[in-house]
Predict the 3D structure of the following.
Amino acid sequence: MVKTTLINQTENKDFISLRSKITKINTKVSQSLKLPLNFTYSLVLVNSETIQTINRDYRHIDKPTDVISFAYNDGIEAYNDFSEEIGDIFINLDYVNKQAIDYGHSPQREYLFLITHGILHLLGYDHQNPEDEKIMFDLQKEILNDIAPR
């Protein structure tokens, strides 16, 4: 089982009602990746100003972004006991509506996509080269298709 600790640091309450869909994503991630044990991650909802500060301080990129993940270990293999916290995902809610319009889907789907994207990063997936990008993006589609269709 995967558990999420949700921390909303914004005034935006639009996405709090999607908690049951986050649980579905967590279950689907566990099933799709055949994860052997339980784990927890923190999901922190922030605005553009906050994520820009995080991006600047930790990635040395002084601009806002949509999502940043901080994994406590490098990939699934690094964990002996998945009952522990595996990392933090920061989602910029200011970007959710904008990107939903840009990509032609609902804000809810964009929010759930960013969560899925962040979880996969916490588990060691990346998109730094075309092969890894295909693997990660195919997994995102598999996980999200039934939960938040386009």
Q: What stands out?
A: Residues 124 and 130 are 16 Å apart (CA to CA). Residues 2-144 form a domain with the Collagenase (Catalytic Domain) fold (CATH 3.40.390.30). The longest strand covers residues 39-46.
